[in-house]
Amino acid sequence: MANPALVRSSGINPITTSDAVVQVRDICKNYGDIEALRGINLEFERGKLTTLLGPSGCGKTTLLKIIAGLVPGTSGEIIVNGRVVTGPGPERAFVFQDFALMPWATVLRNVAFGLELKGMASAERTRIARRYIEQVGLAGFEEKYPHELSGGMRQRVGIARAFAVNADVLLLDEPFSAVDEQNRRKFQEDLLQLVEQEKKTFIFVTHSIEEAVYVSDRIVLLSPRPGRISQIIDPMIDRSATPDDIRRDAGYLDVVEEIWQGLRQYAE
Amino acid sequence: MQMSVSPAKLDNGIGASKEAPITRGQAIRIFADERRSFWIVLSLAILFFAWEVAGRIPISFAFPTFSETILAFGEMVADGSMLKAYILTLQPLVLGVIVSAAVGIALGVAMGLSEKAEWLLAPVFIVLQAAPMAALVPLVTFVYGIGLTAKTLAVIMLALPVIVLNSYKAVRHVNPSLVDMCRSFQGNRMQQIFKIIIPDASPVLFAGLRLGIAAGFIGVMLAELLITPTGIGDLITYHRSVANYAHMYAAVASIIAVSTLTLAGLQYVETHLLRPEKRRK
Amino acid sequence: MTLFGTRIPMMTSLIFWLLVWEIVGQLELMFLIPPISSIFMAGVELVQTGSWQSASIITLRSFVYGMALAISVGVPLGVLMGRVKVIDNIFGLWVNMFVSAPLSALVPVLMILFGLGETTVFVTVFLFAVWIIVLDARAGVMQVPASLVEMGCSYGASRWTIFTKIILLSALPEILAGIRIGLIRGVKGVVIGQILVSVIGYGELFELYSRSFDMERFWALTMLLFVAAMLLSAGVEHFEKRIEYYAGAR
C-alpha cells in the first residue's frame, strides 16, 4: 500500500525529536487485577496535534488523565518540559468530555475559574476570560448559565477555560463526543484554526476515525486489553485546502480506510 | 390530560385544519391544566367538605365538624393561647434545628470527605436513622428534666441523623468530573472543598436540612406530648382532657399546616435559589 | 477504610462504639448508661419473659396489619395517581403534605377516635407508612419509559397487558423502594403509637422500665427494636437488589 499521503512509523519506539514537550516513558496502569495500559512510550511534539485513537477499553482516556496528572500511573513516568509530572501543573490544561462546567456559575466565571484558583485579581481574570470567550465565539453569553447553552456552546466554554490559563499543552478528552454531528464538524474546523493560531501542543482523545484523521498531525492507535500502542500514523493532509475538499481528498479517505482496517478486528 | 379523538370527529371534515372554537369544557380543562392553584383549592375543598359531612353525621362523638374546628381555631387565635403555644413550641424546634444543622452538616461533610470519618461515623448514623429513635425520648427527661433543653434534645435526636446522612450523601454524589476539573487547574484541597464540593453539594445539603426540619417537627410534638405538656402539645392534651374536641383538632391541624407551609417554603427556596438549572427564565 | 493495607468493613466501627459504650458503662459515669454486657444479659432474660412475648405479639400484630393496609391502599393509589391526572391533582397535595407532616401530633386524635388500644397503634402504623408508598409507586409508574409502552402498542398489546406486563413490572423497583422506606417508617409509627398510648405492647414496657429506672431492660428493649428495624430494612434491601438487577440496565 503505497500512499504518498501517508508516512507511517510503526512499532513502540517512535522517532525521537528534540522538540518533545511531553514524554511518556514506560507507563503501565493496573486497576486491581485489570491491566489497563502496558508499556506506553510516546513523545509529543511542540505545536502539533496528536490524537490517541482506539476502541473503547483501550485506555486512551486513562493515558490522557495520567499525562494530566489526574490519575497516577502504576509505573513509568511522564515528563513535561523536562520535569517529571507528579500531579496537575500549570503547563497543562484539560478539556473534559462532559464539559465539567459549574452549573451555579456564569460562563464568565466558568472560563475564569482556572485563573481564579491561581488567585488572580478579579478585574484581570475577567479581562482575560472575556477575550477567550470572544475567541471561541461566545461573545454576549458571558452572563448566561451553562444550562442555558447548547451542548456545543458548553464545550466552547470548556475550551475557552483551558485556553485562558495559557498552558503549553492542551489535553482534550473526547471533547466533541457529546456534541451533535453538524456542530462537531464546525468544532473540528475551529480546532484546526486554534492549533494554527495558538502554537500549543494538543493531545486529543477520540474514538472517531474521521475526526482523528481530519484534525491530527499524528495519530497514535491503541489496541485494547491491555492498552498498547499498535501503530503510529502521520496523516500528511494538506491543510491549505478547504474543509470540504479535505473531506473528499483521496489521501484523507485512504488514511481513514487504513486505520479502519487496523481497528476492525476489535469491533464487536 | 389524555385527549382522545373519536372516529366521528375524523369522519366529518377531510380538511381537518379547520379550527374548532374552544368549547367551555375545553376552556375549563385548559384552565385546570395551567393552574396549580385551582387543584390546590379543589382538593382542599373536597377534604374540608368531607370533614364537614363526617362531623355532621357524626362518625364519632369526638369528631367535630370542619366549621366548628375553624371557629375553635379563631377563638384560640383571638385569646392569644395559640400564639403563646407557638412561641413555646418553636423555641426548641428552632434551637434544635440550628444545632442539628451546624453539627450535622459538619459531620456529614467530614464523612463524605474523609474515609476515616466515614468508617467511624456512617454506621452509627445509619443505625440511628433507621431505628425508632422515639423510644429514647423518655430517657431525655431523666437527665434534663422537662424544660427547654429536654425538648431541644428530642428535636436533635430526630433531626440530626437525617441531616448527617443527607449531607454525607450530598458530598459523596458530587460530580467527580468537576473535582477533576478543579484539580487539573491545580486547585488545592481547600479550593476543591469550598469552590466545588460544597457548592455542588448545596442543593442536596439543603434538601437534607428540609428533611431534618420535618423530623424536628415530629420530635418536638413527641416531646410535648410525652415529656412536657407545653406549647401546642399542651393545647392538644388540655383540650382533649376537657373534651373540647374542636379546639384539640384545631391545634393538631394548625401544627400540621405550619409544618407543611414551612417545608413548602423551604422547597421553594431550594428550587428557586439553589438550582440555577431548574430556575424559570 | 483501609488500615495497614487491609480493607476494614464499614460496619465494624459499630463494634468499636459498643466497646466505648462498655467502658463508659463500666466506669459508672451515668446511671443512664449501664455497660453493654449487662444490657445484653438483661436482653437475654427479657426475651424469656411472658410479658415481653405477649408485648411482642401485640406490637407485631399492629405492625403487620398496619403495613398490610398501607401497602394494599398505598400501591394502588400511587399507581392510579401516576396514571390518572385528575386523581393525581386531587390527592397529590395531601400525599405530599402528610409524607413529611408531624404525624406524632395526630396520635392524640387517633386515641380519642379509636381508643387506647391496638386499633390506634394500627392506624398510626398505617398513617406513617402509607404516604411514602403512594409517592414512590406514583414516581415508579410515571417514569416508565414511553418507548417501552410504545413498543407494547406496536406489538399489539392490549391496554390491560401493557398495564400489567409493562407498566407495573417496570415500576416494581420504585414500588419496592417505597415499601422498604414504608416499613422503616412503620416501625417508627408502631413505637411512637405505643409510647403515646403507653398502656399496651412495648409502650407499656417502656413506661414500666423508665418509671422503675430499670435501665438495663429499657436499653435491652430499645436495642431489640433497633436490631429488628435494621434486619427488616436489610431484608427488604436484599430483595430489592435482586429486583434492581434487571432494572439497572434501564
UniProtKB/TrEMBL annotation, chain A:
PROSITE patterns tied to this protein: ABC_TRANSPORTER_1, ABC_TRANSPORTER_2
Coiled-coil annotated residue ranges, if any: none
Keywords associated with the record: ATP-binding, Nucleotide-binding, Transport
GO function term, MF aspect, one: ATP binding
InterPro entries per record: AAA+_ATPase, ABC_transporter-like_ATP-bd, ABC_transporter-like_CS, ABC_transporter_ATP-bind, P-loop_NTPase
Pfam families: ABC_tran
Domain ABC transporter: start-end pairs: 22-249
Family the UniProt entry places it in: Belongs to the ABC transporter superfamily.
Protein name: ABC transporter
Automatic annotation (TrEMBL), chain C:
Keyword field contains Transmembrane helix: yes
BP terms from Gene Ontology: transmembrane transport
Ranges where the ABC transmembrane type-1 domain occurs: 56-236
Membership in a protein family: Belongs to the binding-protein-dependent transport system permease family.
InterPro entries: MetI-like (IPR000515), MetI-like_sf (IPR035906)
Entry-linked CDD domains: TM_PBP2
Keywords: Cell membrane, Membrane, Transmembrane, Transmembrane helix, Transport
Ranges that cross the membrane: 14-42, 62-81, 93-114, 120-141, 162-183, 218-236
Protein name: ABC transporter permease
Chief location category: membrane
Compartments where located: Cell membrane
GO CC list: plasma membrane
Pfam family, one: BPD_transp_1
Membrane topology listed for this record: Multi-pass membrane protein
